[in-house]
Amino acid sequence: MAENKARQTGSAGRFGARYGRVARKRVAEIEEDMHDDHECPDCGAERVDRKGTGIWQCGNCDYKFAGGTYRPETPGGRTVRRSIRAALSSDGE
User: Which segments does the record annotate as C4-type zinc fingers (predicted)?
Assistant: First the structure.
């Protein structure tokens, strides 16, 4: 009889031996990042949860906002925000 080894497989363990090691590892990393604590852009609390695809809501102040599919803020969004700040600061001179 096979031994029952108690191992932690993570969120991608539900796929078993299917889809390959790299794909399962990528899914596990994405889901881990998605379920991490994220900071609210409104109140600063670490209570932002994903409500749907690209929809995030703070559990502290109920601030709801759009973000990335798996993260509240995407690298592209950071770049755009930086560009807007730079443009606004140069207009004020």
Answer: 40-61
Total residues belonging to the chain: 93
Q: What angle do CA 52, 9, 48 make, to 5 degrees?
A: 30
Residues at the binding site are: 40, 43, 58, 61
Give tens-digit pLDDT for 37-61. 999 999 999 999 999 999 999 999 9
Question: Residue ranges for the binding site for Zn(2+)?
Answer: 40, 43, 58, 61
Coil, helix or strand at residue 5: coil
CA dihedral 12, 50, 79, 30 (to 10 degrees): 0
Distance CA 52, CA 55 (A): 5
Provide the CB-side half-sphere exposure for 41 (13 A, CA): 11
The rounded distance, in Å, linking the Cα atoms of 20 and 74 is 27
Structure tokens at 84: 């807007």
